[in-house]
Amino acid sequence: MEGVRPGGGLPASGPGSGSGSGSGSFPSLFPPGLHGIYGECRRLYPDQPNPLQVTAILKYWLGGPDPLDYVSMYRNLGNPALNVPEHWHYVSFGLSDLYGDNRVHEFTGTDGPSGFGFELTFRLKRETGESAPPTWPAELMQGLARYVFQSENTFCSGDHVSWHSPLDNSESRIQHMLLTEDPQMQPVQTPFGVVTFLQIVGVCTEELHAAQQWNGQGILELLRTVPIAGGPWLITDMRRGETIFEIDPHLQQERVDKGIETDGSNLSGVSAKCAWDDLSRPPEDDEDSRSICIGTQPRRLSGKDTEQIRETLRRGLEINSKPVLPPINAQRQNGLNLDRAPSRKDSLESESSAAIIPHELIRTRQLESVHLKFNQESGALIPLCLRGRLLHGRHFTYKSITGDTAITFVSTGVEGAFATEEHPYAAHGPWLQILLTEEFVERMLEDLEDLNSPEEFKLPKEYSWPEKKLKVSILPDAVFDNPLH
Predict the structure, then answer these.
(1) What residue spans define the domains of the chain?
(2) Do residues 435 and 421 lie in contact, with contact meaning Cβ atoms separated by under 8 Å?
(3) β-sheet with 461-465: strand ranges across
(4) How far apart are CA 192 and CA 37, in angstroms?
(5) What pTM, to 2 d.p., does this model score?
(6) Using one digit for the tens of pLDDT, what is the confidence trace for 457-484?
């Protein structure tokens, strides 16, 4: 539960007391990490020492549900010369390490990131006559923070979040988010590490799809060029009724389509409703589980398998001449949230293929024939997977949100995969890899063209390539939600 108040319930010696003797008199009550972030806020808003603030009444480290201790809300006058409108500016406190005593984040030193290394911000256009900032963005930020804490998956500039609902629970077309560097807030060095500021940018569904098919940074640059859609500071206007492609129809063809053709897609994987069946001959022993499918109980992924899938998603975004599936290691696990896009912490590193698959992993099963199953939303991303990833020598992973199943498509240019041209279907437990040649990808794109027209789609839908021993089915959500029916 949250409270809203001036000063937001900070400690008595907190930001509300300014930089005088208060914070010096009670240093234990004013956490140094919080002080560092607040100092950056004071730099921008010296005339607003006591902003309206949403505070978690029961702090996360005391068992409360909300990871952010505070969300401060400032009034920003914008910049008329740059065509930046007046807006409300929200800043979170809690994704970084505020305390340095391991109550929330492990203290790892001053040189690296503080906590998760970032705080969230949000800029919401101020409506005429609005005297106080709406508080719903604070709950939105808490929702994103909960995902980060639960998954330990951090965000980076250019990432996108599929929200599938108006951000303010209205009838708005702004139903998804992109993330970018805040245009005014500078990175802060605190006693517990460095904190950067990532700004949430509200976008329409069509803009999200363009970001998925191309990349988030490209769409953010387009949004900056359209004042009504964000302008240079990327102000979110929940009343915006047109997408950037409706405002300027040339942007789709001249910028996005050309960008996809030239750059491919930076989306390396998604959480999805998916499953797969091994249609090969029955195994000779129980260790070769024949079917990883809806209606059966799949063998669970080992911790190492799970880490490799997550590393594939997290680190598979770098454009290299020879993309490599990442190694299994003991780093912090990073995953995907239920219906959100994946993020990553750093770029893909060059690794020798000998280091990719340790000998101690479970035996790789080579399959003769497979059947892939997706719901409509996941299936609609198959052309993106093929055109934006595999044709550019990369890989793409579907990770089931209803179980341990994972499906990774790889191209012949990806090193370290356990699927090969000789044996294009291979599995570690419920993790399936499918290697597709460029020639077959081109053919699949032709056969799957109707996936681009969901309004004309009737389920179930099946595609089959008998000579390749591959079948793909697009099924209703209910099949995945009720697997035993």
Answers:
(1) 32-263, 268-280+364-484
(2) yes
(3) 274-278, 370-375, 470-475, 461-465
(4) 12
(5) 0.73
(6) 789 999 999 999 999 999 999 998 865 5
